[in-house]
Design goal:
By secondary structure, the protein is of the alpha+beta class. The protein contains 16 helices and 19 strands.
């Protein structure tokens, strides 16, 4: 420590501007690297990890996937019955849930005396919420009895419930009515009757992240898929009809293997000639959104990390310059130290310690700089990351692992670059060095 302070004061007195700029350049490089690592970590957590956390989610339909990603459904009665989801769940290893998904084509409902836009309304069963990790925050969970009875109940996302009624609890017991046909009766058709009944809000579930919602088409409103059946309909036949589309969640199985296993399980039960479409995306069909999102995250993360590493390396060249001047200016002193018994390794250790100390000082300032700039920088990058922009804007502080990695790399770069000039300082014999000096 005393040796370091002596060297620092000596260099500071000789060239304070150069030492200050060297330390500040290392601080700037370290701060940028820490910020780039933090951005990558946040993207990884909010996008890649969030998508993988729930396992592999695939939609299955009795049909074929067309070249444009849309699904061509089998006309008429499905080639399998209502037991198909349960068959897949029992026969395919890793499958945790398999539940019917009925994509109901309406995007507007009436509630609280107003009309509201709905991004996605779906008919499904109790397992739907487990497939996508949607936790109940108010009310009662959907049951199989609700599906069997076709109860006119509705479960809403927390965001939707708050937008309409102000809170999740206030939404419970309220009525929501999807658009329906008006049946004209009486002379001249003056007596109008809406054939679509109202649904009562039975529960509110936690809103999914925007990435998950867009990736898998998660509904803002979910109701028992049998609730759309008209009174007196053949429930067994209609359940089989709706079961032509269902969603599967599996753990520990990749998408390709899961797809093959689902096809095999359905073929073994319903015949080899059935048409099975399996895709990753939303109930409306396959999309490239997930693949493009993962690629974008990977490219963005690699780009900012490489940029941060390059800037740190460039900023650490200042330490190399300081050590070059040190080795040239102290050649005679170093030779005398060696003549008095100092080993080459001791001289190298002295240079290394000095360069690491400068790097540590710069890295410490860089951590403070990164902490101060983290909010503005993440806010500036928010428009570039689309669906996770709100996470960037609300992020506070830095990722601890990013800080550790940034400091370690700063010390590594500074230590290596500072050590290189020392090898020339101890090269050659002591006598030759003294004569040259």
């Amino acid at each position: 420590m005393r040796k370091f302070l002596s060297l620092f004061l000596r260099h500071w007195s000789q060239s304070p501007v150069k030492i200050s700029l060297t330390v500040l350049s290392v601080a700037l490089g370290t701060g940028i690297l820490i910020l780039s690592f933090s951005v990558s970590s946040l993207l990884q957590k909010e996008v890649t990890d969030a998508l993988q956390k729930g396992g592999t989610v695939l939609y299955v339909q009795n049909g074929t996937v067309k070249s444009d990603g849309t699904i061509e459904r089998v006309d008429g009665r499905p080639q399998w019955d209502s037991n198909a989801p349960a068959q897949v769940k029992s026969d395919v290893a890793g499958v945790q849930q398999a539940v019917v998904v009925a994509n109901i084509p309406f995007d507007e409902v009436s509630a609280a005396g107003k009309s509201w836009r709905v991004r996605s309304a779906l008919g499904s069963g109790p397992d739907y919420f487990d497939v996508f990790g949607l936790k109940l925050v108010a009310g009662q969970a959907m049951t199989e009895a609700d599906v069997d009875s076709g109860n006119k109940k509705l479960w809403l996302s927390e965001d939707f419930a708050k937008a309409v009624w102000g809170s999740a609890d206030a939404a419970l017991g309220q009525f929501v009515q999807p658009p329906g046909r008006l049946f004209l009766r009486g002379p001249g058709g003056t007596d109008k009757q809406n054939l679509i009944q109202s649904y009562v809000v039975a529960g509110v579930y936690s809103s999914p992240s925007e990435v998950n919602r867009r990736s898998y088409g998660i509904g803002d409103a979910v109701f028992p898929y049998t609730a759309v059946l008209p009174a007196g309909a053949n429930s067994t036949l209609m359940k089989s009809f709706f079961s032509s589309t269902f969603v599967v969640r599996a753990v520990g199985v990749n998408a390709d293997k899961l797809t093959a296993s689902i096809r095999s399980a359905l073929a073994s039960q319903y015949g080899e000639t059935i048409s099975v479409a399996v895709w990753e995306g939303s109930p409306r069909g396959a999309s490239t959104y997930l693949q493009e999102l993962r690629q974008a995250v990977s490219i963005f993360s690699v780009s900012v990390n490489v940029l941060g590493l390059v800037l740190l390396l460039i900023s650490s060249l200042g330490i190399f310059s300081v050590m070059v001047v040190e080795s040239l200016g102290r050649r005679k002193e170093i030779s005398l130290e060696r003549a008095l018994g100092a080993s080459q390794s001791l001289v190298l250790q002295e240079f290394w310690s000095w360069s690491v100390a400068l790097s540590l000082l710069g890295a410490a300032i860089g951590v403070v700089l990164a902490w101060v700039l983290s909010g503005p920088v993440l806010g500036t990058l928010a428009p570039l990351v689309g669906e996770v922009s709100t996470k960037f804007q609300s992020a506070a502080g830095l990722d601890p692992w990013a800080v550790v990695a940034g400091v370690v790399l700063a010390l590594g770069c500074g230590g290596v670059l500072g050590l290189l000039p020392a090898f020339s300082a101890v090269r050659g014999t002591i006598a030759d060095t003294l004569r040259e000096a």
